[in-house]
Protein backbone atom coordinates (compact mmCIF):
# COMPACT_ATOMS: atom_id res chain seq x y z
CA UNK A 1 0.00 0.00 0.00
CA UNK A 2 1.29 3.47 -0.79
CA UNK A 3 0.91 6.05 1.95
CA UNK A 4 -1.75 7.99 0.05
CA UNK A 5 -3.85 4.93 -0.78
CA UNK A 6 -3.53 3.74 2.81
CA UNK A 7 -4.79 7.06 4.16
CA UNK A 8 -7.71 7.07 1.72
CA UNK A 9 -8.67 3.53 2.74
CA UNK A 10 -8.45 4.45 6.42
CA UNK A 11 -10.86 7.32 5.83
CA UNK A 12 -13.32 4.92 4.27
CA UNK A 13 -12.98 2.29 6.98
CA UNK A 14 -13.00 4.52 10.04
CA UNK A 15 -15.21 7.44 9.03
CA UNK A 16 -17.22 7.11 5.83
CA UNK A 17 -18.67 3.62 6.30
CA UNK A 18 -19.87 4.03 9.91
CA UNK A 19 -21.22 7.53 9.16
CA UNK A 20 -22.94 6.17 6.07
CA UNK A 21 -24.55 3.31 8.01
CA UNK A 22 -26.13 5.89 10.31
CA UNK A 23 -27.60 7.68 7.27
CA UNK A 24 -29.40 4.54 6.10
CA UNK A 25 -31.68 4.99 9.08
CA UNK A 26 -32.18 1.27 9.77
CA UNK A 27 -32.22 0.53 13.53
CA UNK A 28 -31.20 -3.07 12.80
CA UNK A 29 -27.83 -1.77 11.60
CA UNK A 30 -27.13 0.03 14.87
CA UNK A 31 -25.28 -2.95 16.36
CA UNK A 32 -23.08 -3.32 13.28
CA UNK A 33 -22.35 0.41 13.30
CA UNK A 34 -21.45 0.48 17.01
CA UNK A 35 -19.16 -2.53 16.67
CA UNK A 36 -17.64 -1.39 13.37
CA UNK A 37 -14.54 0.24 14.95
CA UNK A 38 -13.59 -3.13 16.48
CA UNK A 39 -13.05 -4.39 12.93
CA UNK A 40 -12.07 -1.15 11.21
CA UNK A 41 -9.14 -0.43 13.53
CA UNK A 42 -7.44 -3.80 12.85
CA UNK A 43 -8.20 -3.32 9.16
CA UNK A 44 -6.55 0.09 9.22
CA UNK A 45 -3.54 -1.28 11.09
CA UNK A 46 -3.11 -3.98 8.45
CA UNK A 47 -2.33 -1.26 5.91
CA UNK A 48 0.87 -0.29 7.74
CA UNK A 49 2.18 -3.77 8.53
CA UNK A 50 4.41 -5.58 6.06
CA UNK A 51 2.64 -8.22 3.99
CA UNK A 52 2.50 -11.52 5.81
CA UNK A 53 0.56 -13.45 8.47
CA UNK A 54 0.08 -10.50 10.85
CA UNK A 55 -1.20 -8.16 8.15
CA UNK A 56 -3.43 -10.92 6.79
CA UNK A 57 -4.92 -11.65 10.22
CA UNK A 58 -5.67 -7.96 10.84
CA UNK A 59 -7.20 -7.57 7.38
CA UNK A 60 -9.28 -10.70 7.93
CA UNK A 61 -10.95 -9.16 10.98
CA UNK A 62 -12.13 -6.31 8.81
CA UNK A 63 -13.16 -8.62 5.98
CA UNK A 64 -15.39 -10.59 8.36
CA UNK A 65 -17.18 -7.37 9.34
CA UNK A 66 -17.77 -6.50 5.68
CA UNK A 67 -19.21 -9.96 5.04
CA UNK A 68 -21.54 -9.58 8.03
CA UNK A 69 -22.68 -6.25 6.58
CA UNK A 70 -23.23 -7.83 3.16
CA UNK A 71 -25.18 -10.67 4.75
CA UNK A 72 -27.69 -8.15 6.06
CA UNK A 73 -28.60 -7.13 2.49
CA UNK A 74 -30.77 -10.21 1.77
CA UNK A 75 -32.29 -9.90 5.24
CA UNK A 76 -33.24 -6.30 4.50
CA UNK A 77 -34.57 -7.29 1.08
CA UNK A 78 -36.74 -9.99 2.69
CA UNK A 79 -38.12 -7.56 5.26
CA UNK A 80 -38.82 -4.68 2.87
CA UNK A 81 -39.74 -6.82 -0.16
CA UNK A 82 -38.78 -3.80 -2.24
CA UNK A 83 -36.69 -3.48 -5.38
CA UNK A 84 -37.37 0.20 -5.85
CA UNK A 85 -34.46 2.13 -7.32
CA UNK A 86 -33.59 3.80 -4.02
CA UNK A 87 -33.54 0.45 -2.23
CA UNK A 88 -31.34 -1.18 -4.87
CA UNK A 89 -28.76 1.55 -4.28
CA UNK A 90 -28.84 0.99 -0.50
CA UNK A 91 -28.50 -2.78 -0.91
CA UNK A 92 -25.51 -2.19 -3.18
CA UNK A 93 -23.93 -0.01 -0.50
CA UNK A 94 -24.30 -2.83 2.03
CA UNK A 95 -22.66 -5.41 -0.24
CA UNK A 96 -19.76 -3.58 -1.89
CA UNK A 97 -17.46 -3.24 1.17
CA UNK A 98 -17.15 -7.03 1.16
CA UNK A 99 -15.40 -6.82 -2.23
CA UNK A 100 -12.95 -4.36 -0.68
CA UNK A 101 -12.49 -6.63 2.34
CA UNK A 102 -11.69 -9.65 0.18
CA UNK A 103 -9.23 -7.65 -1.92
CA UNK A 104 -7.58 -6.33 1.24
CA UNK A 105 -6.97 -9.81 2.65
CA UNK A 106 -5.52 -11.01 -0.67
CA UNK A 107 -3.27 -7.96 -1.05
CA UNK A 108 -2.01 -8.05 2.53
CA UNK A 109 -1.22 -11.76 2.20
CA UNK A 110 0.63 -11.18 -1.08
CA UNK A 111 -1.77 -13.44 -2.97
CA UNK A 112 -2.63 -12.43 -6.54
CA UNK A 113 -6.34 -13.22 -6.27
CA UNK A 114 -7.89 -14.32 -9.58
CA UNK A 115 -4.58 -13.43 -11.21
CA UNK A 116 -4.78 -9.70 -10.41
CA UNK A 117 -1.47 -8.15 -9.43
CA UNK A 118 -1.10 -6.68 -5.96
CA UNK A 119 -1.24 -3.09 -7.20
CA UNK A 120 -4.69 -3.62 -8.72
CA UNK A 121 -5.90 -5.38 -5.56
CA UNK A 122 -4.61 -2.49 -3.45
CA UNK A 123 -6.59 0.01 -5.54
CA UNK A 124 -9.68 -2.20 -5.48
CA UNK A 125 -9.94 -1.59 -1.73
CA UNK A 126 -10.57 2.18 -1.91
CA UNK A 127 -12.57 1.81 -5.11
CA UNK A 128 -15.23 -0.34 -3.45
CA UNK A 129 -15.33 1.84 -0.37
CA UNK A 130 -15.99 5.00 -2.36
CA UNK A 131 -17.21 4.12 -5.88
CA UNK A 132 -19.02 1.22 -4.22
CA UNK A 133 -20.33 2.04 -0.75
CA UNK A 134 -20.29 5.84 -0.75
CA UNK A 135 -21.52 6.40 -4.30
CA UNK A 136 -24.36 3.89 -4.02
CA UNK A 137 -25.44 5.19 -0.62
CA UNK A 138 -25.48 8.84 -1.69
CA UNK A 139 -27.31 7.91 -4.89
CA UNK A 140 -29.93 6.16 -2.79
CA UNK A 141 -30.30 9.15 -0.47
CA UNK A 142 -30.65 11.50 -3.43
CA UNK A 143 -33.28 9.20 -4.92
CA UNK A 144 -35.23 9.22 -1.65
CA UNK A 145 -35.16 13.00 -1.54
CA UNK A 146 -36.18 13.46 -5.18
CA UNK A 147 -39.43 12.37 -6.79
CA UNK A 148 -38.20 12.87 -10.35
CA UNK A 149 -36.71 10.54 -12.93
CA UNK A 150 -33.15 11.76 -12.34
CA UNK A 151 -33.10 10.26 -8.85
CA UNK A 152 -34.10 6.86 -10.17
CA UNK A 153 -31.49 7.08 -12.92
CA UNK A 154 -28.81 7.85 -10.35
CA UNK A 155 -29.92 5.09 -7.98
CA UNK A 156 -29.88 2.48 -10.74
CA UNK A 157 -26.89 3.65 -12.79
CA UNK A 158 -24.43 3.76 -9.90
CA UNK A 159 -24.99 0.12 -8.82
CA UNK A 160 -25.08 -1.05 -12.44
CA UNK A 161 -21.92 0.86 -13.31
CA UNK A 162 -20.13 -0.49 -10.24
CA UNK A 163 -21.13 -4.04 -11.19
CA UNK A 164 -20.00 -3.56 -14.80
CA UNK A 165 -16.64 -2.20 -13.67
CA UNK A 166 -16.20 -5.28 -11.47
CA UNK A 167 -17.13 -7.58 -14.36
CA UNK A 168 -14.73 -5.64 -16.57
CA UNK A 169 -11.89 -6.63 -14.24
CA UNK A 170 -12.44 -10.22 -15.38
CA UNK A 171 -13.20 -9.57 -19.05
CA UNK A 172 -11.32 -6.77 -20.78
CA UNK A 173 -10.68 -3.05 -20.83
CA UNK A 174 -13.64 -2.39 -23.14
CA UNK A 175 -16.06 -3.94 -20.67
CA UNK A 176 -14.50 -1.83 -17.93
CA UNK A 177 -14.92 1.26 -20.11
CA UNK A 178 -18.62 0.45 -20.53
CA UNK A 179 -18.90 0.22 -16.76
CA UNK A 180 -17.09 3.54 -16.35
CA UNK A 181 -19.52 5.19 -18.77
CA UNK A 182 -22.57 3.93 -16.89
CA UNK A 183 -21.05 4.78 -13.51
CA UNK A 184 -20.14 8.26 -14.70
CA UNK A 185 -23.69 8.86 -15.92
CA UNK A 186 -24.99 7.84 -12.52
CA UNK A 187 -22.48 9.95 -10.63
CA UNK A 188 -23.21 13.01 -12.76
CA UNK A 189 -26.90 12.47 -12.02
CA UNK A 190 -26.00 12.46 -8.32
CA UNK A 191 -24.01 15.65 -8.88
CA UNK A 192 -26.97 17.32 -10.60
CA UNK A 193 -29.40 16.32 -7.87
CA UNK A 194 -27.00 17.38 -5.14
CA UNK A 195 -26.51 20.83 -6.68
CA UNK A 196 -30.07 21.45 -7.81
CA UNK A 197 -32.21 19.85 -5.11
CA UNK A 198 -30.24 18.66 -2.07
CA UNK A 199 -27.93 21.65 -1.60
CA UNK A 200 -30.85 24.01 -1.09
CA UNK A 201 -32.08 21.93 1.86
CA UNK A 202 -29.07 22.96 3.91
CA UNK A 203 -30.11 25.53 6.48
CA UNK A 204 -26.60 26.85 7.04
CA UNK A 205 -23.76 27.99 4.82
CA UNK A 206 -21.40 25.14 5.76
CA UNK A 207 -23.87 22.42 4.83
CA UNK A 208 -24.63 24.07 1.50
CA UNK A 209 -20.91 24.52 0.84
CA UNK A 210 -20.20 20.82 1.48
CA UNK A 211 -22.98 19.78 -0.89
CA UNK A 212 -21.70 22.23 -3.52
CA UNK A 213 -18.17 20.84 -3.13
CA UNK A 214 -19.40 17.26 -3.52
CA UNK A 215 -21.36 18.13 -6.66
CA UNK A 216 -18.49 20.00 -8.26
CA UNK A 217 -15.83 17.43 -7.40
CA UNK A 218 -17.84 14.62 -9.03
CA UNK A 219 -17.78 16.34 -12.40
CA UNK A 220 -13.99 16.52 -12.39
CA UNK A 221 -13.19 13.14 -10.81
CA UNK A 222 -15.48 11.20 -13.13
CA UNK A 223 -13.94 12.91 -16.15
CA UNK A 224 -10.62 11.58 -14.90
CA UNK A 225 -12.13 8.11 -14.49
CA UNK A 226 -13.40 8.20 -18.07
CA UNK A 227 -10.05 9.37 -19.42
CA UNK A 228 -8.26 6.54 -17.65
CA UNK A 229 -10.73 3.86 -18.77
CA UNK A 230 -10.70 5.16 -22.35
CA UNK A 231 -6.91 5.18 -22.37
CA UNK A 232 -6.72 1.63 -21.05
CA UNK A 233 -9.11 0.42 -23.76
CA UNK A 234 -7.68 2.34 -26.71
CA UNK A 235 -4.04 2.87 -25.78
CA UNK A 236 -4.23 6.65 -26.06
CA UNK A 237 -2.24 8.62 -23.45
CA UNK A 238 -3.99 8.74 -20.08
CA UNK A 239 -3.19 9.38 -16.42
CA UNK A 240 -1.12 6.81 -14.55
CA UNK A 241 -2.55 4.87 -11.60
CA UNK A 242 -0.41 6.94 -9.25
CA UNK A 243 -1.83 10.15 -10.70
CA UNK A 244 -5.36 8.74 -10.54
CA UNK A 245 -4.95 7.92 -6.85
CA UNK A 246 -3.71 11.47 -6.14
CA UNK A 247 -6.52 13.15 -8.11
CA UNK A 248 -9.54 10.95 -8.77
CA UNK A 249 -9.11 8.90 -5.59
CA UNK A 250 -8.34 11.74 -3.22
CA UNK A 251 -11.02 13.96 -4.75
CA UNK A 252 -13.71 11.32 -4.42
CA UNK A 253 -12.68 10.46 -0.87
CA UNK A 254 -12.48 13.99 0.54
CA UNK A 255 -14.47 16.14 -1.85
CA UNK A 256 -17.35 13.77 -2.57
CA UNK A 257 -17.69 11.02 0.02
CA UNK A 258 -16.63 12.84 3.18
CA UNK A 259 -18.38 16.11 2.31
CA UNK A 260 -21.54 14.24 1.31
CA UNK A 261 -21.91 12.08 4.41
CA UNK A 262 -21.15 15.00 6.71
CA UNK A 263 -23.62 17.27 4.92
CA UNK A 264 -26.33 14.62 4.87
CA UNK A 265 -25.77 14.01 8.57
CA UNK A 266 -26.18 17.73 9.29
CA UNK A 267 -29.47 17.77 7.37
CA UNK A 268 -30.81 14.76 9.26
CA UNK A 269 -29.73 16.15 12.62
CA UNK A 270 -31.40 19.47 11.84
CA UNK A 271 -34.59 17.70 10.75
CA UNK A 272 -34.66 15.74 14.00
CA UNK A 273 -34.55 18.89 16.16
UniProtKB/TrEMBL annotation:
The keyword Transmembrane helix applies. The keyword Membrane applies. Keywords: Membrane, Transmembrane, Transmembrane helix. The chain crosses the membrane at residues 6-23, 57-75, 82-106, 118-141, 153-171, 177-195, 207-229, 241-264. It comes from the Bacteria. This is YndJ family protein. It comes from Streptomyces beijiangensis.
